[in-house]
Protein backbone atom coordinates (compact mmCIF):
# COMPACT_ATOMS: atom_id res chain seq x y z
CA UNK A 1 0.00 0.00 0.00
CA UNK A 2 1.18 3.49 -0.76
CA UNK A 3 0.31 6.83 0.74
CA UNK A 4 -1.13 9.66 -1.32
CA UNK A 5 1.12 12.73 -1.30
CA UNK A 6 -0.37 16.12 -2.13
CA UNK A 7 1.77 19.21 -2.56
CA UNK A 8 -0.51 22.21 -2.26
CA UNK A 9 -0.17 25.86 -3.24
CA UNK A 10 2.06 25.53 -6.30
CA UNK A 11 2.29 28.72 -8.33
CA UNK A 12 5.46 28.56 -10.42
CA UNK A 13 6.74 26.26 -13.15
CA UNK A 14 9.82 25.44 -11.06
CA UNK A 15 7.77 24.36 -8.07
CA UNK A 16 5.39 22.36 -10.23
CA UNK A 17 8.28 20.61 -11.98
CA UNK A 18 9.86 19.79 -8.61
CA UNK A 19 6.62 18.31 -7.25
CA UNK A 20 6.00 16.22 -10.37
CA UNK A 21 9.58 15.00 -10.63
CA UNK A 22 9.59 14.08 -6.93
CA UNK A 23 6.52 11.93 -7.57
CA UNK A 24 3.66 13.83 -5.93
CA UNK A 25 0.33 12.09 -6.48
CA UNK A 26 -1.77 15.25 -6.22
CA UNK A 27 -0.94 18.90 -6.78
CA UNK A 28 -3.01 21.75 -5.38
CA UNK A 29 -3.74 25.12 -6.97
CA UNK A 30 -5.15 27.76 -4.62
CA UNK A 31 -7.92 30.12 -5.74
CA UNK A 32 -8.16 32.42 -2.74
CA UNK A 33 -6.94 35.99 -3.24
CA UNK A 34 -5.95 36.48 0.42
CA UNK A 35 -3.52 33.55 0.19
CA UNK A 36 0.18 34.01 -0.66
CA UNK A 37 -0.37 30.96 -2.89
CA UNK A 38 -3.26 32.38 -4.92
CA UNK A 39 -2.96 31.83 -8.66
CA UNK A 40 -4.85 33.58 -11.43
CA UNK A 41 -6.89 31.17 -13.58
CA UNK A 42 -4.59 31.64 -16.60
CA UNK A 43 -1.47 30.74 -14.59
CA UNK A 44 -3.30 27.85 -12.99
CA UNK A 45 -4.33 26.57 -16.42
CA UNK A 46 -0.72 26.57 -17.61
CA UNK A 47 0.51 24.80 -14.49
CA UNK A 48 -2.32 22.28 -14.65
CA UNK A 49 -1.32 21.28 -18.19
CA UNK A 50 2.12 20.32 -16.88
CA UNK A 51 0.53 18.09 -14.27
CA UNK A 52 -2.26 16.50 -16.30
CA UNK A 53 -1.75 12.75 -16.56
CA UNK A 54 1.17 12.85 -14.11
CA UNK A 55 -0.59 13.86 -10.89
CA UNK A 56 -4.18 14.56 -9.96
CA UNK A 57 -5.02 18.24 -10.19
CA UNK A 58 -6.80 19.75 -7.20
CA UNK A 59 -8.41 23.20 -7.33
CA UNK A 60 -8.75 24.65 -3.84
CA UNK A 61 -11.43 27.22 -3.10
CA UNK A 62 -13.01 28.66 0.04
CA UNK A 63 -16.81 28.97 0.12
CA UNK A 64 -16.83 29.39 -3.67
CA UNK A 65 -19.85 30.59 -5.58
CA UNK A 66 -20.86 28.84 -8.79
CA UNK A 67 -19.30 31.55 -10.95
CA UNK A 68 -15.84 30.91 -9.48
CA UNK A 69 -16.24 27.16 -9.84
CA UNK A 70 -17.39 27.60 -13.45
CA UNK A 71 -14.24 29.63 -14.17
CA UNK A 72 -12.06 27.02 -12.48
CA UNK A 73 -13.71 24.22 -14.42
CA UNK A 74 -13.40 26.03 -17.75
CA UNK A 75 -9.77 27.11 -17.35
CA UNK A 76 -8.20 24.34 -15.28
CA UNK A 77 -10.52 21.31 -15.60
CA UNK A 78 -9.23 19.84 -12.31
CA UNK A 79 -9.67 16.23 -11.23
CA UNK A 80 -10.72 17.37 -7.77
CA UNK A 81 -12.44 20.36 -6.22
CA UNK A 82 -11.20 21.00 -2.69
CA UNK A 83 -13.59 22.96 -0.50
CA UNK A 84 -11.69 24.56 2.36
CA UNK A 85 -14.29 26.85 3.87
CA UNK A 86 -17.47 26.34 5.88
CA UNK A 87 -19.35 24.57 3.08
CA UNK A 88 -22.29 22.52 4.41
CA UNK A 89 -22.82 18.86 3.41
CA UNK A 90 -25.66 20.08 1.18
CA UNK A 91 -23.35 22.52 -0.60
CA UNK A 92 -20.71 19.79 -1.04
CA UNK A 93 -23.34 17.54 -2.64
CA UNK A 94 -24.50 20.41 -4.87
CA UNK A 95 -20.94 21.22 -6.05
CA UNK A 96 -20.26 17.55 -6.75
CA UNK A 97 -23.45 17.15 -8.79
CA UNK A 98 -23.17 20.46 -10.66
CA UNK A 99 -19.53 20.12 -11.69
CA UNK A 100 -19.18 16.35 -11.96
CA UNK A 101 -15.87 16.27 -10.13
CA UNK A 102 -14.65 14.49 -7.03
CA UNK A 103 -14.84 16.74 -4.00
CA UNK A 104 -12.37 16.84 -1.13
CA UNK A 105 -13.83 18.55 1.94
CA UNK A 106 -11.35 20.05 4.38
CA UNK A 107 -12.31 20.20 8.03
CA UNK A 108 -10.44 22.04 10.77
CA UNK A 109 -9.70 20.03 13.90
CA UNK A 110 -8.97 21.20 17.43
CA UNK A 111 -11.17 18.93 19.55
CA UNK A 112 -12.96 15.53 19.34
CA UNK A 113 -16.27 17.35 18.67
CA UNK A 114 -14.92 18.38 15.28
CA UNK A 115 -15.24 14.77 14.14
CA UNK A 116 -18.98 14.86 14.76
CA UNK A 117 -19.17 17.17 11.74
CA UNK A 118 -17.06 14.72 9.75
CA UNK A 119 -19.82 12.12 9.93
CA UNK A 120 -22.19 14.49 8.18
CA UNK A 121 -19.92 14.53 5.10
CA UNK A 122 -19.39 10.76 4.92
CA UNK A 123 -20.85 9.41 1.70
CA UNK A 124 -21.18 12.96 0.35
CA UNK A 125 -17.60 14.17 -0.04
CA UNK A 126 -15.32 11.82 -1.96
CA UNK A 127 -12.53 12.45 0.53
CA UNK A 128 -12.03 14.22 3.84
CA UNK A 129 -8.94 16.25 4.65
CA UNK A 130 -8.26 17.07 8.29
CA UNK A 131 -6.31 20.25 8.89
CA UNK A 132 -5.49 22.29 11.98
CA UNK A 133 -8.39 24.57 12.88
CA UNK A 134 -7.25 28.16 12.20
CA UNK A 135 -7.30 30.74 14.97
CA UNK A 136 -10.20 33.24 14.80
CA UNK A 137 -7.71 35.95 13.84
CA UNK A 138 -6.45 34.04 10.77
CA UNK A 139 -6.89 35.65 7.38
CA UNK A 140 -7.17 32.26 5.67
CA UNK A 141 -8.56 28.91 6.81
CA UNK A 142 -5.55 26.78 5.85
CA UNK A 143 -1.96 26.81 4.76
CA UNK A 144 -0.87 28.18 8.13
CA UNK A 145 1.85 25.66 8.99
CA UNK A 146 0.14 24.68 12.25
CA UNK A 147 -0.17 21.09 13.43
CA UNK A 148 -3.02 19.73 15.57
CA UNK A 149 -3.00 17.02 18.20
CA UNK A 150 -2.91 13.85 16.10
CA UNK A 151 -4.08 11.75 19.06
CA UNK A 152 -7.53 13.31 18.46
CA UNK A 153 -7.70 11.14 15.34
CA UNK A 154 -7.90 8.08 17.58
CA UNK A 155 -11.46 9.16 18.47
CA UNK A 156 -12.59 9.17 14.84
CA UNK A 157 -14.90 6.46 13.48
CA UNK A 158 -12.49 3.84 12.04
CA UNK A 159 -14.70 3.54 8.94
CA UNK A 160 -13.87 7.12 7.93
CA UNK A 161 -10.85 7.48 5.63
CA UNK A 162 -9.01 10.78 5.58
CA UNK A 163 -5.95 12.66 4.43
CA UNK A 164 -3.90 14.61 6.96
CA UNK A 165 -2.58 18.15 6.72
CA UNK A 166 -1.51 20.99 8.96
CA UNK A 167 2.10 21.82 9.73
CA UNK A 168 3.60 18.75 8.09
CA UNK A 169 7.20 18.86 6.90
CA UNK A 170 10.07 16.50 6.08
CA UNK A 171 11.01 16.29 9.76
CA UNK A 172 7.62 15.31 11.19
CA UNK A 173 5.85 13.48 8.37
CA UNK A 174 7.31 10.08 9.32
CA UNK A 175 5.82 10.41 12.79
CA UNK A 176 2.48 11.49 11.29
CA UNK A 177 2.47 8.43 9.03
CA UNK A 178 3.43 6.13 11.88
CA UNK A 179 1.06 7.67 14.41
CA UNK A 180 -2.12 8.00 12.32
CA UNK A 181 -4.07 5.93 9.79
CA UNK A 182 -4.15 8.72 7.20
CA UNK A 183 -4.41 7.46 3.63
CA UNK A 184 -2.46 10.49 2.46
CA UNK A 185 -0.64 13.63 3.51
CA UNK A 186 -0.94 17.21 2.29
CA UNK A 187 1.69 19.91 2.71
CA UNK A 188 2.12 23.54 1.83
CA UNK A 189 4.10 25.71 4.30
CA UNK A 190 6.43 22.83 5.19
CA UNK A 191 7.94 22.85 1.70
CA UNK A 192 8.39 26.64 1.52
CA UNK A 193 11.33 28.91 2.34
CA UNK A 194 8.93 31.86 2.81
CA UNK A 195 5.12 32.10 2.62
CA UNK A 196 4.11 31.14 -0.91
CA UNK A 197 7.68 30.37 -2.06
CA UNK A 198 8.10 26.66 -2.61
CA UNK A 199 11.58 25.17 -2.31
CA UNK A 200 12.48 22.28 -4.65
CA UNK A 201 14.84 20.65 -2.15
CA UNK A 202 12.18 20.79 0.58
CA UNK A 203 9.62 19.25 -1.77
CA UNK A 204 12.01 16.41 -2.63
CA UNK A 205 12.84 15.87 1.05
CA UNK A 206 9.15 15.77 2.01
CA UNK A 207 8.24 13.24 -0.66
CA UNK A 208 11.25 11.06 0.14
CA UNK A 209 10.56 11.11 3.90
CA UNK A 210 6.91 10.20 3.30
CA UNK A 211 7.77 7.31 0.97
CA UNK A 212 10.32 5.89 3.44
CA UNK A 213 7.80 6.12 6.28
CA UNK A 214 5.03 4.52 4.21
CA UNK A 215 7.32 1.68 3.11
CA UNK A 216 8.24 1.01 6.73
CA UNK A 217 4.61 1.08 7.83
CA UNK A 218 3.17 -1.09 5.09
CA UNK A 219 6.08 -3.49 4.46
CA UNK A 220 5.04 -7.13 4.86
CA UNK A 221 6.24 -8.47 8.25
O1 LIG B 1 -2.55 27.37 1.37
C1 LIG B 1 -3.29 28.35 1.54
O2 LIG B 1 -2.86 29.49 1.53
C2 LIG B 1 -4.74 28.13 1.80
C3 LIG B 1 -5.59 29.24 1.78
C4 LIG B 1 -6.93 29.07 2.04
C5 LIG B 1 -7.43 27.83 2.32
C6 LIG B 1 -6.59 26.72 2.35
C7 LIG B 1 -5.24 26.86 2.09
N1 LIG B 1 -4.39 25.78 2.12
C8 LIG B 1 -4.93 24.50 2.39
C9 LIG B 1 -4.10 23.32 2.12
O3 LIG B 1 -4.51 22.40 1.42
C10 LIG B 1 -2.85 23.15 2.84
O4 LIG B 1 -2.07 22.21 2.17
C11 LIG B 1 -3.14 22.65 4.22
O5 LIG B 1 -3.93 23.60 4.89
C12 LIG B 1 -1.85 22.47 4.99
O6 LIG B 1 -1.14 23.65 5.00
P1 LIG B 1 0.22 23.76 5.80
O7 LIG B 1 -0.09 23.66 7.24
O8 LIG B 1 0.75 25.10 5.42
O9 LIG B 1 1.09 22.64 5.30
Structural class: alpha/beta
Question: CATH class, please?
Answer: Alpha Beta
The coarse overall form would be globular
Tell how many strands the DSSP assignment holds.
10
Q: Could you report the average pLDDT, rounded to the nearest whole number?
A: 96
Strand content: 15-25%
Largest sheet: 8 strands, parallel, barrel
CATH superfamily: Aldolase class I
Q: Runs with pLDDT <50, length 5+?
A: none
Give the N-to-C terminal Cα separation.
Answer: 13 Å
- Would you tell me which CATH topology applies? TIM Barrel
Helical stretch count? 7
Side-by-side strand order of the widest sheet: 1-2-3-4-5-6-7-8
Question: How would you describe what is shown here?
Answer:
This protein is of the alpha/beta class and 221 residues long. It has one domain: TIM Barrel (Alpha-Beta Barrel). It has helices at 13-22, 41-51, 66-75, 89-99, 114-121, 173-179, 200-218, and strands spanning 4-8, 26-31, 56-61, 80-83, 102-109, 127-132, 163-165, 184-187, 192-194, 197-198. The strands form 2 sheets. An 8-stranded parallel barrel has the order 1-2-3-4-5-6-7-8, surrounded by 6 helices. Strands 9-10 form a two-stranded antiparallel sheet. Helix 3 links the parallel strand 3 (56-61) and strand 4 (80-83). Helix 1 runs parallel beside helix 7 (200-218) and helix 6 (173-179) packs parallel to helix 7 (200-218). The chain is globular and about 50 Å long. Bound molecules: ligand LARABZUK. Ligand LARABZUK binds next to strand 2 and strand 8.
